[in-house]
Amino acid sequence: MLDLDTLDSEFARIVASADGSTSVASQLAKAYDDYAKGGVILGADLSAGGDKSLLENAFTVCEPSSGTAANMATKLCAYWQGLPKPGIPSHGGVAVVSVVPTFVAVQAGVLAAIMGCITTSEVQKPYKKLFGAIEDVLKTAVCTVTETMPTTPPAPSPFPETLR
Fold this sequence. Notes:
This protein is α+β, with helices and mostly antiparallel strands and 164 residues long.
């Protein structure tokens, strides 16, 4: 993953520039998308996927029906579910056939991580704390990367991988 300090600084800059009448959700979504695409799942390409509109919805807090921790957890997990695509074989295969993530399975953990960061006290580097807690949960999701192995005949082989 990219540096959490950088993500924290970018979010802090965007939020500080908000005037209260214009949504900054698209800017926050772009910053997080750039951050997420710096992650690594062996055999997967994280630069090709990810629906930024899910992130925009996750980071919209002006609309009471969508500005909830549960909505944020749901949208973040849905975003990550669509992020990894077949990439370069990393297990001795000749091609990656598929990448099947399970980020939606850790949604309850992501929600718990978000709720654990909510406080009435001032927090230094709050976005670093929030996204670090979320990332710790996302790293528990298993992505099954299936590669075609150079056997005779060629055969698919699954490999469990996690976000790094």
